[in-house]
Amino acid sequence: MFSGIVEETGKVKGIVKRGDVVELRIEAEKVIDDLKEGDSISVNGVCLTVEKIENKKFYVSLTHQTLRDTDLGKLKIGENVNLERSLKLSDRIGGHFLTGHIDFVSRVISIEKRGNSGILKFSIPQEFRKYIVKKGSIGVEGISLTVSEIKNGIVSISLIPFTLQNTNLKDKKNGSYLNIEVDMMAKYIENFIKERIR
Fold first, then answer.
1. I need a labelling partner for 70 at 20 to 30 A (CA). Which of 23, 44, 99, 149 fits?
2. Domain 8-85 in this protein, CATH class
């Protein structure tokens, strides 16, 4: 479980195909401190398992499903990725609960810089629109963000300077891929209501 508060951006240092999986090697400074083999870590919002740690780098594997359902298979060496260690019971929840299970991949329609802030726009497939509301929470590349507006399936999000400076959104351009996770509480409520009216 994650909170969507990115701890740092790491750098992809290696991409190695091993049989039917792809191994990512990611360099980090902060999260590496107390990271252990077997720990869960969020990489661009995707929950992955740390398999190896050496020389300020950790290794994770991407299965066929992860490659199919997220944008991690499109990463290139040298790219920045958003990193967050899994929550401890004593942690503050600064964002909202994220599972690291991506609902869909979208693409940037526009990312308009306004001084040191910005507006991000991307589309939402019809089947997921019911889970998104104005001023509600949404996970974008593992970042807990607030929906400024949703209109005709287009989500707009206001980006504060801190988010632009401390996440990989500063690298995104029109057409860039985004991992999206909708608020799981909305899905639980929907399921509860469906069960009650049967």
1. 149
2. mainly beta
- pLDDT tens-digit readout, 15-34: 999 889 999 999 999 999 99
pTM over 0.70: yes
Given CATH 2.40.30.20, say whether it is the number of domain 104-196.
Answer: yes
Q: Which residues pair with 180 in a beta bridge?
A: 104, 140
Spell out the domain ranges in the chain: 8-85, 104-196
